[in-house]
Amino acid sequence: MANRTKAVVMDATAVDRAITRIAHELLEENKGAEGLALVGIVTRGAHLAQRLAERVREIEGADVPVGTLDISFYRDDISTRNNPEVHRTDLPFDPSGICVVLVDDVLFTGRTIRAAMDALMDYGRPSCIRLAVLVDRGHRELPVRADYVGKNVPTSSRERVRVLLKETDGEDAVVISEGEVTKEC
Amino acid sequence: MLSSRHILGMDDLTAEDITRILETAESFAAVNERRIKKLPTLRGLTVVNLFLEPSTRTRTSFEIAAKRLSADGINFTASASATVKGESLRDTAATLAAMSCDLVIIRHKYAGAPRILSEMMDCSIVNGGDGIHQHPTQALLDLYTMQQRLGHLEGLRVGIVGDIAHSRVAGSLIPALLKVGAHPIVVAPPTLLPARPDVLGAEVSWDLDEVLPTLDVAYMLRIQMERSDGMPFPSLREYARFYGMNLTRLAAMKPAAIVMHPGPMNRGVEISADVADSDRSLVLEQVESGVAVRMAVMYLLLGGADSGAAA
């Protein structure tokens, strides 16, 4: 897609600081790493969850279970999307009775999170579900809010917010570009 | 999304489509291991099982697949439907269309019935077996089973043994194997081969014992005992002696080679009981894969932008 990059709203350092802060907030609110699990939504949320877990280990010296969640089968727009590429869900623990933190890159309409909560519930009954996102860009279509936010980025709905990560894109950054709106977040 | 909105035969699928179906099936197989096996994916869509020829495993497999995806499944079976009262396929299609369904799985005793249905109806059609023509979802689940066990498909030597001339399973499996770069070898007495076996694109052999040591998969076809014109070989015992899989033949195969059968098995004819129950036989894995692969097919057919009926 021929998107013109308008602005870099977070660079690598800012992304790293945001992850560190969210890790601290998680541990503070949960009073440690006990009974906590991170579940990243594929693909970039999964990488972010992995990084959060590493940061938690550095801070607290404790391992939190990490899982990945594919929400393709829970989307509400299956008949209008033409590229239902499916990844694997991998939850190496039972989410019942623990506090599960969903991790995603961009919070937009809230539909992905609705689907993720439904998917998670089919694996067990967490004692609570929290939401951590790197960027909240507004324009919610569902009553969903994030508990931990890396950065609030006010956008127009015509803009496109992209989170770039080393694992998938070779660099860490959050960029806004003008372009066709793809409401996929 | 697949390159065709129907799966009438393997011709409708590209190698890319096949890879996509097998990959998606892997995700569904993981779902089938959960405690809650139901997904909301196809909620509100209607899937019709139009089975105008007796079938238990294929129909049940499609039925479970539809239920696991939250689609509403409706069964039309030969004995219960209006076809026994003389209704034509055309009228059955019109009736189904009037009830606005999204996907029809059809099994019919005549080759080509699914294609006729696809020309008369607006929804996606999946061939669940038509006469002696094709049975594409069986071939897909067979590929899936082979890939899961052997790790790859390309270059596999797959011996398909038995009634090649009358087998719709072979009719789909041979082109499917060719598409993914595997190497099919049909093994049968000349009376069970079609008039021009060379057009199949597979290697042809009359001698099972000669090809066995080279095979990665021995795919045993069912001898169709119900055929009214009798069997084109002297006796079942003779067939079993020359073309049946048994422990001696299994020992002649490569150590990692596997035995498959589309079911239902005639134990003691094309496969001996001890082979059928051994860990080299993947018969039950095939049945298990069937649900995941059919879920993938339904998901990919109904999840695309072009399925106007689903919107």
- Sequence stretches where pLDDT stays below 50 over 5 or more residues of chain A: none
* End-to-end gap of chain A: 17 Å
In CATH's first tier, which class of the largest domain in chain B applies?
Alpha Beta
Q: What is the helix/strand order of chain A?
A: EHEHEEHEEEHE
Radius of gyration of chain A: 16 Å
The overall strand count of chain A is 8
- The average pLDDT of chain B is 92
Write down how many β-strands of chain B occur, each being a DSSP E stretch of 2 or more residues.
9
- The first-level CATH class name of chain A: Alpha Beta
Radius of gyration of chain B: 19 Å
Biggest sheet descriptor of chain A: 5 strands, parallel
- Broad structural category of chain A: alpha/beta
Layout of secondary structure:
The complex is a heterodimer of chains A (185) and B (311).
Chain A: E1 4-10, H1 12-30, E2 36-41, H2 44-60, E3 66-69, E4 99-107, H3 111-121, E5 128-136, E6 148-152, E7 159-164, H4 166-169, E8 173-178
Parallel strand pairs in A: 2-3, 2-4, 4-5, 5-6
Antiparallel strand pairs in A: 1-8, 7-8
Chain B: H1 15-31, E1 46-51, H2 57-68, E2 72-77, H3 89-98, E3 103-108, H4 113-120, E4 124-130, H5 136-150, E5 157-161, H6 168-179, E6 183-187, E7 203-205, H7 208-211, E8 217-220, H8 236-243, H9 247-252, E9 258-260, H10 273-276, H11 283-302
Parallel strand pairs in B: 1-2, 1-3, 3-4, 5-6, 5-8, 6-7, 8-9
Helix pairs in contact in B: 1-5, 1-11, 2-11, 3-4, 5-6, 5-11
